[in-house]
TrEMBL record:
Transmembrane portions of the chain: none
InterPro entries in alphabetical order: NosD_dom, PbH1, Pectin_lyas_fold, Pectin_lyase_fold/virulence, SCF-Subunits/Alg-Epimerases
Lineage: Bacteria, Bacillati, Actinomycetota, Actinomycetes, Kitasatosporales
Highest taxon of source: Bacteria
SUPFAM superfamilies: Pectin lyase-like
Pfam family, one: NosD
Keyword vocabulary terms for this entry: Repeat
Name the record gives this protein: Periplasmic copper-binding protein NosD beta helix domain-containing protein
Domain Periplasmic copper-binding protein NosD beta helix, residue spans: 128-298
Signal peptide annotation: none
Length: 408
């Protein structure tokens, strides 16, 4: 059944409360000042027009849309001006109840046991000017975030946290003008970030471990075929840890694979591996990537007692590493017990940021195909995972403003 807003129900929340599994909630253009929580499985929430169906929190509510049931699809709408998240997908009761985030962003759920929401889809969503994350999957599995746009995230545009194994695919998204474009914390195991445009943030992408969330350490994510460039945009919210000018940052993450990414024009470094306070970065593989115009292409630095081990490179197009000659001295394959060398380089000073509420408004984004005539979306129990062999290196032509990376 299709429930139309406002034809059949005056608000989105009222329509969602009427929906049964398999129903479509179809929302007409308008600005809706509400926070929508979807607690019924297999409901599709879709806007008739991505740019004209706007859920606006007016900086008075934590979340625009909260998905707290499996098999839910959120499609073809805009979420903005929420104090925490644009779209939150979670199996955590505390997070769904809009508990306050911890010091560095993610939710500290205390003694709450880890409960996963299984299966979700976020597609053709614009999330802008939100005080924590634009699109946030936390304690969730078996999902896809695709064809979406995130900007003005005071922590990051897209975030995946606390899942193992994740079985989550983040593909064909644009994330710009955020503190961090994509952030993965304690997220690994069939965790794919593929074919995204992460350009013009303060930091393009991070994957790492954090004691604030459960399921330590972060390990086993695939970062492939992404364009990660020019991540030193001043007109962005200030990054909590002071990061600036970095394409990819690995902080205590292990066994991750970075494959055929184009990493360009990041003023500090293209890819940095470091250790969080007591969690080493172990066994990360950097293969067949192209680095151009970065301050340092690849830099390894371990300022704490925790050191890296078994990190290696193979087949990359690059010009500079710290320490020098990593392509030779740390060539893949490498034993996980081999201590990773460390060095230092001159890092640029990050300028002050701007409030997330002042980030530039997004341009119109591509619409969900046949939004008015397609029925409810069936979200698979487990998504199809990318074939890594079919993920190409993005063309240099995609460095042009607004060019979109496409996955096969």
């Amino acid at each position: 059944m299709t429930i139309r807003v406002p034809g059949d129900a005056p608000t989105i929340s009222a329509a969602v409360s009427l929906a049964r599994p398999g129903d479509l909630v179809l929302v007409a253009p308008g600005v809706y000042h509400e926070s929508v929580k979807v607690s019924t499985p297999r409901v599709t929430l879709r806007g008739e027009s991505r740019d004209k169906v706007v859920i606006d929190g007016r900086l008075q509510q934590p979340n625009g849309v909260v998905v707290a049931a499996p098999g839910v699809a959120v499609e073809n709408l805009t979420v903005r001006n929420n104090t925490q998240n644009g779209v939150l997908v979670t199996g955590s009761a505390k997070a769904a109840a809009a508990g306050l985030p911890g010091r560095s962003g993610g939710y500290d759920t205390g003694d709450e046991p880890v409960t996963f929401l299984k299966s979700f889809l976020v597609s053709h969503v614009t999330a802008t000017r939100n005080g924590l994350y634009g699109i946030y999957a936390f304690s969730a599995q078996n999902g896809v975030i695709e064809h979406s746009y995130a900007s003005g995230g005071a922590d990051s545009g897209i975030y995946v946290g606390q899942c193992k194994p994740c079985r989550i695919v983040v593909r064909d998204n644009i994330s710009e003008l955020n503190a961090v474009g994509y952030e993965g914390t304690n997220a690994g195991g069939d965790m794919y970030v593929v074919g995204n445009r992460l350009v013009g943030n303060r930091v393009g992408l991070t994957t790492g471990s954090d004691h604030q969330e459960k399921l330590l350490p972060q390990q086993d994510a695939v970062i492939a075929g992404n364009l990660i460039a020019v991540n030193q945009q001043r007109a962005t919210p200030q990054q909590a840890d002071g990061g600036w000018g970095i394409g990819i940052g690995v902080d205590g993450g292990s066994s991750n694979r970075f494959v055929r990414n184009r990493i360009a024009d990041n003023s500090n470094a293209g890819l940095v591996i470091t250790a969080t306070a007591d969690i080493p970065a172990v066994g990360n593989q950097i293969t067949d990537n192209t680095f151009t115009g970065n301050g340092v292409d690849i830099g390894w630095t371990f300022p704490t007692a925790a050191r890296g081990r078994g990190n290696c490179l193979r087949g990359n197009d690059l010009r500079s590493t710290v320490p020098a000659r990593l392509a030779t001295t740390a060539s893949c394959p490498l034993s996980a017990t081999t201590l990773s060398p460390a060095g230092r380089w001159a890092m640029p000073t990050a300028p002050g940021g701007i409030p997330f509420t002042e980030v530039a408004a997004p341009a119109p984004q591509p619409q969900f195909p046949h939004a008015l005539t397609t029925g409810a979306t069936t979200v698979p129990a487990v998504p199809d995972l990318p074939d890594l062999a079919g993920v190409p290196l993005p063309s240099a032509s995609l460095l042009a403003a607004g060019a979109r990376v496409r996955t096969p």
